[in-house]
Specification:
binds S-adenosylmethionine; binds iron/sulfur cluster; alpha/beta; TIM Barrel; twelve-stranded mixed beta sheet; 30% helix; 11 helices
């Protein structure tokens, strides 16, 4: 990885303007997708025969690094690496180490979202690089349902990965997509298990992103309905805790743990949005639920990469929409956005 780029863009004195959009929202959080590939095939995320991108369309490690540094120079303070599955990219840990060196120097936090299958192998190296917490996606702890949901028999590896992360000193937050008729009944137990293990857990509504096999909206479960089921078992107290993200939080009285709810379809959370997303091909999506996009790969491969990147980021700020455009129509399920979540990493 080129250290030259790292020093060339790190001057604090002539830093360009921060990223502020047309609605005066300060953008300080980047989700950077490092691969579209994955070793699982979650049924709500992608089809079994997912067509992955040709490798030459994907940004090189140097390009990802260069982009991330460009964002830090424009005031991005938190970076979450995601995918696809970030840990299936072979040179991923080099990027983590390189960005880890910017912690405390423009960057406040470096995190990652992972399915956990390869976490056991990488947990210590992540902690050594300065990562303090990881989000692990886990929709069930029932091995048969895990296999059905992800089309792979890997629950054991994921649980080992979570344990390794804890042993390495990483905080683990679990993300769970609530799915009607699938993990719906298990959710109260899953929350009890997560809190018993010392993990925070957040439930998410399934979003209409990309084509999958079958009808994803058959399993759409509004969290308003989940809440009733949870409250039959747990006492939920609304919490003032905020992370700057879209979740609303509750303290579960009996467990002493924290529960987050993300409700993109039933409740809008766009007013305080502070984030942007970049795909592994360098497309910047100012909104997960919108079609607007800016081509950063073209910018950084142009004759004037620094100037073109700054211009592209300014353009992204001009076009970031006020709110997302997710809709559930009365009959169904045409995805609001044709791209899969594995492009933008959630
Ligand atoms: N592979 C990693 C993982 O699963 O954590 C990172 C990428 S994955 C796309 C990020 C998150 O998006 C996961 O928590 C996953 O459950 C969620 N996700 C994927 N497709 C979704 C959809 N259509 N609606 C809501 N969440 C989705
Ligand atoms: Fe892979 Fe994550 Fe999508 Fe599941 S949700 S298929 S783990 S990218």
């Amino acid at each position: 990885m080129s250290e030259m780029r790292q020093t060339a863009k790190s001057s604090a004195t002539d830093r360009p303007a921060p990223l502020v959009d047309a609605f005066a929202r300060h953008i300080t959080y980047l989700r950077l997708s490092v691969t579209d590939r994955c070793d699982l095939r979650c049924t709500y995320c992608m089809p079994e025969k997912m067509q992955f991108l040709p490798r030459n369309e994907v940004l090189t490690l140097d390009e990802l690094h260069h982009l991330a540094l460009g964002f830090i120079d424009r005031g991005i303070r938190r970076i979450r690496l995601t995918g696809g599955e970030p840990l299936v990219r072979r040179d991923m840990m080099d990027l983590v180490r390189a960005l880890g060196r910017r912690l405390g120097e423009g960057l406040d936090e470096l995190t990652l979202t992972t399915n956990g299958t390869q976490l056991a192998e990488h947990a210590s190296a992540l902690a050594d690089a300065g990562v303090e917490r990881v989000n692990v996606s886990l929709d069930t702890i029932d091995p048969a349902l895990f296999k059905r949901l992800t089309r792979r028999d890997r629950l054991e590896q994921v649980l080992a990965g979570i344990a390794a992360a804890r042993a390495a000193g990483l905080k683990v937050k679990l993300n769970t997509v609530a799915l009607k008729g699938l993990n719906e009944i298990e959710l109260p137990d899953l929350i009890g298990w997560a809190h018993g293990e010392g993990h925070e857990i957040t439930l998410i509504e399934v979003m209409p992103l990309g084509e999958v096999d079958g009808d994803r909206m058959d399993h759409y479960l509004p969290l308003s309905a989940v809440r009733d089921r949870l409250e039959a078992r747990w006492t939920l107290r609304s919490s003032s805790y905020r992370t700057g993200g879209p979740a609303r939080y509750f303290d579960v009285e009996e467990t002493g743990g924290r529960l987050g709810l993300i409700t993109p379809l039933t409740q809008n959370f766009c007013e305080g949005c502070n984030r942007i997303r970049v795909t592994t091909t360098g497309q910047l999506y100012p909104c997960l639920g919108g079609g607007e996009q800016v081509d950063l790969r073209a910018a950084i491969r142009s004759a004037d990469p620094e100037g073109a990147l700054d211009d592209a980021l300014d353009q992204a700020m001009r076009i970031k929409p006020a709110r997302h455009a997710f809709r559930i129509d009365a009959h169904g399920q045409r995805p609001a956005q044709p791209r899969h979540m594995s492009m933008t990493g959630g």
